[in-house]
Amino acid sequence: MKKIVLTGGGTAGHVTPNLALLPSLVERGYEIHYIGSYNGIERKLIEDAGIPYDGISSGKLRRYFDLKNFTDPFRVIKGYAEARRLMKKYRPDVVFSKGGFVAVPVVLAAKHYKIPAIIHESDMTPGLANKLCIPSAAKICCNFPETLTYLPEDKAVLTGSPIRKELLEGDRLTGLQYTGLSAIKPVILVIGGSLGSVAVNKVVRQILPELLDMYQVIHICGKGHLEESLIGKPGYVQYEYVDTPLRHLFAAADLVLSRAGANSICEILALRKPNILIPLSAAVSRGDQILNARSFEKQGFSVVLEEEALDGTTLCRTIRETYENRHQYIQAMEKSSLSDAVGTVMGLISSFAEA
User: Fold this and answer.
1) How far apart are CA 66 and CA 334, in angstroms?
2) CA angle 285, 288, 294 (to 5 degrees)
3) 70 secondary structure, DSSP code
4) What is the reported pTM?
5) Please, are residues 310 and 203 in contact by the beta-carbon 8 Å criterion?
6) Which of 1, 182, 192, 255 might form a disulfide with 197, Cβ 3.0–4.6 angstroms?
7) E strands within 8-46?
8) Burial of residue 351 (number of CB atoms within 10 Å: 0-12, 13-18, 19+)
9) Distances, alpha carbon 206 to alpha carbons 201, 226, 313, in Å
């Protein structure tokens, strides 16, 4: 039986592509182990999936001053020692890393035992954790054509991001029944990310009277961001968070309004949903969402509305124009070669594990 160690953590985006690979790995008979942080978000997600989980010490390498910069290097060293012990214990044939700082000691430990490691970079430019892993990686998967220029030519592979199979199995009627909406008016799905988006929420609610004349709105607004005064408003439904039914909400949507996290927009691409991307401002991020969004815009998949330009007028106009031209975005997405990331990544895994 072939063995694989999966790793990645810190955010859901560093875990969900690993979860997307699980059915194919199980189907091919792999023995699967997961290495993450002791108490990160990845632990519950992986344990809920029934995969054996090992936690290791994890530290973050920051580019700014923080007192933890003096203690976290020792956590990284400890994590490396722990990862080496786990590699020696499991002796996997291959390691697949989705990134995050917990993955660094795992990839380095794999190199120590000459175990091939495949890493995946979601964003346009590699983050610091993956930059540290690149010299030790056998292959580097990425989502955007532009990313290839930042990676070693002999290691880089344009794969797209593995998407959970169940997300592609949504049913429009089930989504409409779940939300209580009708099939008469088109549906806009607003997704602010796992924590929601105060700026997007505010503007969407500001223009609700105009929107509800022509559309219905499903609003995933984030924990603690429900607006009680709008509960029960005809044509508008809001949720703090949606898990399993999300596939049906996507199926019901005619247009998606979203942030531009790499995994989220790759899901939108796989579902062929016309979309408007509002990337996080560079003032509160390293600007990766802006680069992600601009790449999708350049490829004809998306319309981009920068947060600095976001107000009721610009959002109303952008929604109207995007919906009117929705077929051209659908056609562009249908031509994308990144529709089977799971198959492509599994091909890479097999080429090393079964060599």
Assistant:
1) 46
2) 130
3) G
4) 0.85
5) yes
6) 192
7) 31-37
8) middle
9) 9, 14, 10
